[in-house]
Design a protein that fits this description.
The protein is an alpha/beta fold. It has 2 domains: about 140 residues, Leucine Dehydrogenase, chain A, domain 1 (Rossmann fold), CATH 3.40.50; about 150 residues, NAD(P)-binding Rossmann-like Domain (Rossmann fold, 3-Layer(aba) Sandwich). It is built from 14 helices and 13 strands. The strands form 3 sheets. It has a 7-stranded mixed sheet with strand order 10-9-8-7-11-12-13, sandwiched between helices. The chain has a 4-stranded mixed sheet with strand order 1-2-5-4. Strand 1 and strand 2 form a beta hairpin. Helix 6 crosses helix 12, helix 6 crosses helix 13 and helix 12 crosses helix 13. It is globular. The N and C termini lie far apart (about 45 Å). Bound molecules: nicotinamide-adenine-dinucleotide. The site of nicotinamide-adenine-dinucleotide has 24 residues, from helix 7 and strand 8.
């Protein structure tokens, strides 16, 4: 059977499994499985050479029953509306897994930021924000960084929104620079959350993290910081990669050297003391912990049987397909699903939003301690759900999340 790799179809399959276990009635099912709102915009942008290019952008709000929509903005040439719809749905389930008072949203622009100047990116970002302005805001829909967007992009989002409404609105976006109402600890939060739940998984699997070989695909915000934090805990980073390829050293790679090398050359490839490995090969390396931290659909029915890791922690969104899930479960791989494993980012985004609304800022220790409490609680609740329903961790996380959103939707009632 040919595997359907459309992320939106995949997100609905994942939802349906949980809805079956929860025996949701058909009306409620239809409400929860579709996005509440989708906006498609054209973004005319003056390029440095004087020409004008028109980019296509999206903002999708999947569900806001439990609070304002929340989710990142992705810049990538392969962005599609269906991908953003899937990412928005995953955000709705993710905020429910960690039980923070947000719904789910996501945005994206079809562009290749690696081929654009900073000025072009700034003008495109400001026009994109202006186009989606009617549906965003600190009480409506709060953006954040995702693939190829960063704190600088978020500062432009905040400034554009603020200049338009006429006052400084810190809470419209998270992942901002700390100098502009960003939170201490936000930059590391996705990777730190991933570490906390992996520590719990190691405890369940009776696998010491100390000395455990770890392979990481993707070396951006999620992947490079995960490499550093896992290394600090004594794990052995044996392979890392980015869009240009990967490097491996079974005796261990120093993440700080890899970060410096990437800063200098633009890639981890050719890091001294390592050999070259292709991105596909990296996934199949012999290791205890595998962290996909790049893009969707990298572990599919085609390669799942070759995975040798004992634990997979999905720092990326959607890296493993449903058919691969089944194969990995049969192999006894313990998988930490994206809506749990990378929820540290949105959790500290929630802290940032709370700090912005109160104009009262916390110390990094406080942020990290609260993050640890929430991530470990979420792990415990998902694991209990897995044991109760006799399902793998992804379906268990969906059962927990969909149940929470369904309950909020039911008590609110269908308007009018
Ligand atoms: P980023 O832009 O900081 O980094 C992306 C990395 O992936 C880069 O190193 C890039 O070279 C690499 N990459 C791109 N294409 C690749 C390919 N085909 N093969 C291997 N590597 C490739 O992005 P990020 O914020 O780290 O996001 C990575 C993943 O983590 C995404 O799935 C994102 O949705 C997810 N995520 C990020 C956050 C966050 O707070 N940034 C939170 C939750 C989930």
């Amino acid at each position: 059977m040919k595997e359907n790799l459309n992320p939106y179809v995949i997100s609905q399959m994942q939802f349906d499994q949980a809805a079956d276990h929860l025996k949701l009635d058909s009306g409620l099912r239809e409400v929860l499985r579709r996005p509440k709102r989708q906006m498609v915009v054209s973004i005319p942008t003056k390029m440095d050479n004087g020409s004008v290019r028109v980019f296509e952008g999206y903002r999708v709000q999947h569900n806001i029953a439990r609070g304002p929509a929340k989710g990142g903005i992705r810049y990538h040439p392969n962005v599609t509306l269906d991908e953003i719809k899937a990412l928005a749905a995953w955000m709705a389930w993710k905020t429910a897994v960690v039980n923070i008072p947000f719904g789910g949203g996501k945005g994206g622009v079809v562009c290749d930021p690696r081929k654009m100047s900073s000025g072009e990116l700034e003008r495109m970002t400001r026009r994109f924000v202006t186009e989606i302005l009617p549906i965003i805001g600190p009480d409506r829909d709060i953006a954040a960084p995702d693939v190829y967007t960063d704190p600088q992009t978020m500062a432009w989002v905040m400034d554009t929104y603020s200049m338009t409404v006429g006052y400084s609105s810190l809470g419209v976006v998270t992942g901002k620079p700390v100098s502009l109402g960003g939170s201490e600890g936000r930059n590391e939060a996705t990777a730190r959350g991933c570490l906390f739940v992996t520590q719990e998984a190691c405890r369940v699997k009776r696998l010491p993290l100390e000395g455990a070989p770890v392979a990481i695909q993707g070396f951006g915000n999620a992947g490079s910081i995960a490499a550093r934090l896992f290394h600090e805990q004594g794990a052995k980073i044996i392979a890392v990669s980015d869009s240009r390829g990967g490097v491996v050293n079974p005796r261990g790679i120093d993440p700080l050297k890899a970060i410096q090398h990437k800063e200098k050359t633009g890639s981890v490839v050719s890091l001294p003391g390592t050999s070259r490995v292709r991105n596909e090969e990296l996934l199949e390396l012999k290791c205890d912990i595998l962290i996909p931290a790049a893009l969707e659909n990298v572990i599919t029915a085609a390669n799942a049987a070759n995975i040798k890791a004992k634990i997979i922690a999905e720092a990326a969104n959607g890296p493993v397909t449903p058919m691969a899930d089944d194969i990995l479960t049969r192999k006894g791989v313990f998988l930490l699903p994206d809506i749990l494993a990378n929820a540290g980012g949105v959790t500290v985004s929630y802290f940032e939003w709370v700090q912005d609304l109160q104009n009262f800022f916390w110390e990094e220790e406080q942020v990290n301690a609260k993050l640890e409490t929430i991530m470990k609680r979420a792990f415990r609740e998902v694991h209990e759900s897995a044991l109760k329903y006799r399902v793998h961790m992804r379906t268990a996380a969906y059962i927990l999340a969909v149940g929470r959103v369904a309950e909020a939707t039911l008590v609110r009632g269908i308007f009018p």
